[in-house]
Amino acid sequence: MLAQETSQLLKKHQIRLNRRKGQNYLINNHILSRIVENANISDSDVVLEIGAGIGTLTIPLARKAAKVVAFEQDKRIIHLLQERLQELEIYNVEVVEGDATKMEFPYFNKVVSNLPYQISSPITFKLLKYDFDYAILMYQLEFAQRMVAQPGTSNYSRLSVMMHLCTHTELLFKVPPNAFLPPPRISSAVIKLTPRKNPQVEEFFIKTCRALFQHKKKKSGKALLQSFHEISSSNLEKREIRDIISKIDNKLTEKRVFKLEGEEILIISNELKDLMNNPS
Protein backbone atom coordinates (compact mmCIF):
# COMPACT_ATOMS: atom_id res chain seq x y z
CA MET A 1 0.00 0.00 0.00
CA LEU A 2 2.75 2.47 0.97
CA ALA A 3 4.77 1.57 -2.13
CA GLN A 4 1.80 2.18 -4.42
CA GLU A 5 0.84 5.43 -2.68
CA THR A 6 4.42 6.75 -2.93
CA SER A 7 4.69 5.92 -6.64
CA GLN A 8 1.33 7.55 -7.40
CA LEU A 9 2.20 10.74 -5.51
CA LEU A 10 5.55 11.11 -7.25
CA LYS A 11 4.00 10.42 -10.65
CA LYS A 12 1.16 12.90 -10.03
CA HIS A 13 3.65 15.67 -9.19
CA GLN A 14 6.10 14.59 -11.96
CA ILE A 15 8.94 14.14 -9.46
CA ARG A 16 11.90 11.88 -10.13
CA LEU A 17 13.88 11.05 -7.01
CA ASN A 18 17.60 11.79 -6.91
CA ARG A 19 19.80 9.14 -5.23
CA ARG A 20 22.63 11.67 -4.96
CA LYS A 21 20.47 13.79 -2.64
CA GLY A 22 19.70 10.74 -0.52
CA GLN A 23 16.11 10.62 -1.78
CA ASN A 24 15.38 6.97 -1.02
CA TYR A 25 11.82 6.86 0.31
CA LEU A 26 10.63 4.15 2.66
CA ILE A 27 7.88 2.05 1.06
CA ASN A 28 7.64 -0.82 3.56
CA ASN A 29 4.66 -0.53 5.93
CA HIS A 30 6.11 -3.00 8.44
CA ILE A 31 9.42 -1.13 8.74
CA LEU A 32 7.55 2.19 9.05
CA SER A 33 5.41 0.77 11.87
CA ARG A 34 8.49 -0.52 13.71
CA ILE A 35 10.20 2.89 13.52
CA VAL A 36 7.13 4.71 14.87
CA GLU A 37 6.62 2.05 17.55
CA ASN A 38 10.24 2.34 18.75
CA ALA A 39 9.93 6.13 18.87
CA ASN A 40 7.18 5.74 21.50
CA ILE A 41 5.72 9.18 20.77
CA SER A 42 3.29 10.78 23.21
CA ASP A 43 1.02 13.81 22.81
CA SER A 44 3.51 15.97 24.73
CA ASP A 45 6.48 15.26 22.44
CA VAL A 46 8.02 17.70 19.97
CA VAL A 47 9.67 15.59 17.27
CA LEU A 48 12.49 16.69 14.97
CA GLU A 49 12.57 15.03 11.55
CA ILE A 50 15.43 15.62 9.10
CA GLY A 51 14.76 14.82 5.47
CA ALA A 52 10.96 14.68 5.73
CA GLY A 53 10.40 13.91 2.05
CA ILE A 54 6.76 13.37 1.14
CA GLY A 55 5.75 12.78 4.76
CA THR A 56 6.01 9.00 5.04
CA LEU A 57 7.23 9.37 8.64
CA THR A 58 5.95 12.91 9.23
CA ILE A 59 2.27 12.00 9.01
CA PRO A 60 2.18 9.05 11.48
CA LEU A 61 4.44 11.03 13.86
CA ALA A 62 2.20 14.11 13.69
CA ARG A 63 -0.84 11.98 14.59
CA LYS A 64 0.84 11.05 17.86
CA ALA A 65 2.99 14.08 18.80
CA ALA A 66 2.24 17.58 20.02
CA LYS A 67 4.31 18.91 17.13
CA VAL A 68 6.69 17.78 14.37
CA VAL A 69 9.46 20.04 13.08
CA ALA A 70 10.18 18.67 9.60
CA PHE A 71 13.31 19.78 7.72
CA GLU A 72 13.35 19.34 3.94
CA GLN A 73 15.63 20.89 1.33
CA ASP A 74 13.91 20.11 -1.98
CA LYS A 75 11.33 22.81 -2.88
CA ARG A 76 9.30 20.44 -5.10
CA ILE A 77 9.05 17.89 -2.29
CA ILE A 78 8.10 20.60 0.24
CA HIS A 79 5.17 21.64 -1.97
CA LEU A 80 3.99 18.01 -2.16
CA LEU A 81 4.39 17.54 1.61
CA GLN A 82 2.46 20.71 2.47
CA GLU A 83 -0.31 19.72 0.07
CA ARG A 84 -0.61 16.30 1.73
CA LEU A 85 -0.68 17.77 5.23
CA GLN A 86 -3.43 20.20 4.19
CA GLU A 87 -5.51 17.45 2.55
CA LEU A 88 -5.22 15.29 5.69
CA GLU A 89 -5.99 18.28 7.95
CA ILE A 90 -2.74 17.89 9.87
CA TYR A 91 -1.80 21.28 11.36
CA ASN A 92 0.88 20.44 13.95
CA VAL A 93 3.78 20.13 11.48
CA GLU A 94 6.24 22.99 11.03
CA VAL A 95 7.92 22.45 7.66
CA VAL A 96 11.38 24.07 7.57
CA GLU A 97 13.03 24.57 4.18
CA GLY A 98 16.81 24.41 4.14
CA ASP A 99 19.99 22.48 4.85
CA ALA A 100 19.66 20.93 8.33
CA THR A 101 23.45 20.76 8.69
CA LYS A 102 23.67 24.57 8.53
CA MET A 103 20.57 25.70 10.44
CA GLU A 104 19.77 25.97 14.13
CA PHE A 105 17.16 23.52 15.37
CA PRO A 106 14.15 24.84 17.30
CA TYR A 107 13.14 23.08 20.51
CA PHE A 108 12.59 19.31 20.27
CA ASN A 109 12.78 16.41 22.71
CA LYS A 110 12.86 13.44 20.32
CA VAL A 111 14.31 12.85 16.85
CA VAL A 112 12.89 10.41 14.28
CA SER A 113 14.41 10.45 10.81
CA ASN A 114 15.28 8.46 7.74
CA LEU A 115 18.50 10.43 7.33
CA PRO A 116 19.93 11.25 3.90
CA TYR A 117 23.08 9.10 4.07
CA GLN A 118 25.49 11.78 2.87
CA ILE A 119 24.77 13.92 5.96
CA SER A 120 24.75 11.07 8.51
CA SER A 121 27.99 12.06 10.21
CA PRO A 122 27.54 15.87 10.44
CA ILE A 123 23.92 15.56 11.56
CA THR A 124 24.75 12.96 14.22
CA PHE A 125 27.48 15.13 15.75
CA LYS A 126 25.32 18.24 15.45
CA LEU A 127 22.48 16.52 17.34
CA LEU A 128 24.85 15.78 20.23
CA LYS A 129 25.12 19.52 20.88
CA TYR A 130 21.42 19.57 21.79
CA ASP A 131 19.57 18.27 24.83
CA PHE A 132 16.96 15.64 23.91
CA ASP A 133 15.58 12.34 25.20
CA TYR A 134 16.58 10.01 22.35
CA ALA A 135 16.63 9.59 18.58
CA ILE A 136 15.43 6.83 16.27
CA LEU A 137 17.51 7.18 13.11
CA MET A 138 17.96 5.29 9.86
CA TYR A 139 21.56 4.96 8.67
CA GLN A 140 23.54 3.10 6.04
CA LEU A 141 24.23 -0.31 7.62
CA GLU A 142 28.02 0.08 7.43
CA PHE A 143 27.82 3.44 9.24
CA ALA A 144 25.48 1.99 11.89
CA GLN A 145 27.86 -0.93 12.49
CA ARG A 146 30.73 1.51 13.04
CA MET A 147 28.60 3.43 15.53
CA VAL A 148 28.13 0.38 17.76
CA ALA A 149 31.48 -1.38 17.11
CA GLN A 150 33.48 -2.63 20.08
CA PRO A 151 37.27 -2.25 20.63
CA GLY A 152 39.32 -4.88 18.80
CA THR A 153 36.81 -5.34 15.95
CA SER A 154 37.34 -4.34 12.31
CA ASN A 155 34.54 -1.72 12.39
CA TYR A 156 35.92 0.03 15.48
CA SER A 157 36.67 3.66 14.63
CA ARG A 158 36.76 7.23 15.86
CA LEU A 159 32.97 7.26 15.36
CA SER A 160 32.60 4.21 17.66
CA VAL A 161 34.58 5.96 20.40
CA MET A 162 32.58 9.19 20.16
CA MET A 163 29.27 7.32 20.22
CA HIS A 164 30.36 5.24 23.22
CA LEU A 165 31.43 8.25 25.27
CA CYS A 166 28.59 10.60 24.25
CA THR A 167 25.62 8.25 23.88
CA HIS A 168 24.09 4.89 24.53
CA THR A 169 23.69 3.54 20.98
CA GLU A 170 21.70 0.45 20.08
CA LEU A 171 21.22 -1.12 16.64
CA LEU A 172 17.52 -2.00 16.64
CA PHE A 173 17.08 -3.77 13.30
CA LYS A 174 18.39 -3.98 9.73
CA VAL A 175 16.48 -2.78 6.66
CA PRO A 176 16.92 -4.33 3.19
CA PRO A 177 17.34 -2.19 0.04
CA ASN A 178 13.94 -3.23 -1.34
CA ALA A 179 12.24 -1.35 1.52
CA PHE A 180 12.97 1.89 -0.35
CA LEU A 181 12.10 3.63 -3.62
CA PRO A 182 14.44 3.77 -5.43
CA PRO A 183 16.30 0.92 -3.71
CA PRO A 184 19.78 2.00 -2.54
CA ARG A 185 22.79 -0.16 -3.37
CA ILE A 186 23.38 -0.95 0.29
CA SER A 187 21.41 -2.17 3.31
CA SER A 188 20.33 0.14 6.10
CA ALA A 189 19.78 -0.08 9.84
CA VAL A 190 17.72 1.70 12.46
CA ILE A 191 19.60 2.99 15.50
CA LYS A 192 18.33 4.20 18.86
CA LEU A 193 20.65 6.90 20.15
CA THR A 194 20.32 8.19 23.71
CA PRO A 195 22.65 11.05 24.76
CA ARG A 196 24.67 10.58 27.94
CA LYS A 197 24.49 13.35 30.52
CA ASN A 198 27.61 15.55 30.67
CA PRO A 199 29.91 13.59 28.32
CA GLN A 200 33.60 14.33 29.01
CA VAL A 201 34.38 15.10 25.40
CA GLU A 202 36.00 18.36 24.31
CA GLU A 203 37.88 19.68 21.30
CA PHE A 204 41.32 18.47 22.46
CA PHE A 205 39.97 14.94 22.90
CA ILE A 206 38.45 15.02 19.40
CA LYS A 207 41.85 16.02 17.94
CA THR A 208 43.63 13.28 19.92
CA CYS A 209 41.11 10.71 18.74
CA ARG A 210 41.54 11.82 15.12
CA ALA A 211 45.33 11.56 15.39
CA LEU A 212 45.17 8.07 16.90
CA PHE A 213 42.75 6.61 14.35
CA GLN A 214 44.81 7.74 11.39
CA HIS A 215 47.00 4.77 12.37
CA LYS A 216 44.47 2.49 14.05
CA LYS A 217 46.57 -0.69 13.79
CA LYS A 218 49.72 0.85 15.26
CA LYS A 219 50.61 1.26 18.91
CA SER A 220 49.02 4.42 20.25
CA GLY A 221 52.36 6.04 21.16
CA LYS A 222 53.60 5.68 17.59
CA ALA A 223 50.26 6.85 16.19
CA LEU A 224 50.42 10.01 18.31
CA LEU A 225 53.99 10.68 17.19
CA GLN A 226 53.17 10.28 13.50
CA SER A 227 50.00 12.39 13.61
CA PHE A 228 50.89 14.94 16.27
CA HIS A 229 50.15 17.72 13.74
CA GLU A 230 46.46 16.85 14.17
CA ILE A 231 46.70 17.76 17.86
CA SER A 232 49.00 20.78 17.88
CA SER A 233 50.26 23.25 15.31
CA SER A 234 53.21 24.28 17.52
CA ASN A 235 56.66 23.82 16.00
CA LEU A 236 57.88 21.17 18.38
CA GLU A 237 60.78 19.02 17.25
CA LYS A 238 60.23 15.30 16.93
CA ARG A 239 62.40 14.54 19.98
CA GLU A 240 60.29 16.98 22.06
CA ILE A 241 57.08 15.30 20.92
CA ARG A 242 58.60 11.88 21.65
CA ASP A 243 59.57 13.09 25.13
CA ILE A 244 56.01 14.27 25.86
CA ILE A 245 54.48 10.99 24.66
CA SER A 246 56.99 8.95 26.70
CA LYS A 247 55.48 10.43 29.89
CA ILE A 248 51.98 9.08 29.13
CA ASP A 249 50.99 5.82 30.86
CA ASN A 250 53.16 3.20 29.12
CA LYS A 251 50.44 0.53 29.29
CA LEU A 252 48.28 2.74 27.05
CA THR A 253 50.95 3.92 24.60
CA GLU A 254 52.00 0.29 23.99
CA LYS A 255 48.43 -0.74 23.21
CA ARG A 256 47.25 -0.76 19.59
CA VAL A 257 44.79 2.02 18.79
CA PHE A 258 41.93 -0.21 17.66
CA LYS A 259 42.07 -2.06 21.00
CA LEU A 260 41.79 1.07 23.17
CA GLU A 261 38.56 1.59 25.12
CA GLY A 262 36.99 5.03 24.83
CA GLU A 263 37.83 5.70 28.48
CA GLU A 264 41.48 4.82 27.81
CA ILE A 265 41.63 7.32 24.95
CA LEU A 266 40.14 9.87 27.34
CA ILE A 267 43.00 9.19 29.79
CA ILE A 268 45.58 9.55 26.99
CA SER A 269 43.99 12.83 25.90
CA ASN A 270 43.86 14.24 29.44
CA GLU A 271 47.47 13.25 30.21
CA LEU A 272 48.68 14.65 26.90
CA LYS A 273 46.87 17.94 27.48
CA ASP A 274 48.37 18.28 30.99
CA LEU A 275 51.87 17.49 29.70
CA MET A 276 51.59 20.06 26.91
CA ASN A 277 50.29 22.73 29.28
CA ASN A 278 52.92 21.89 31.94
CA PRO A 279 55.94 20.54 30.02
CA SER A 280 58.20 20.57 33.09
TrEMBL record:
SUPFAM superfamilies xref list: S-adenosyl-L-methionine-dependent methyltransferases (SSF53335)
Residues holding S-adenosyl-L-methionine = N24, L26, G51, E72, D99, N114
Q: Which keywords does this chain's UniProt record carry?
A: Cytoplasm, Methyltransferase, RNA-binding, rRNA processing, S-adenosyl-L-methionine, Transferase
The family database entries (Gene3D superfamilies) matched by this protein are listed as:
Ribosomal RNA adenine dimethylase-like, domain 2, Vaccinia Virus protein VP39
What's a Pfam family in this record? RrnaAD
A single Gene Ontology CC term = cytoplasm
Query: Mind telling me what this protein is named?
Result: Probable ribosomal RNA small subunit methyltransferase A
Q: Which gene encodes it?
A: rsmA
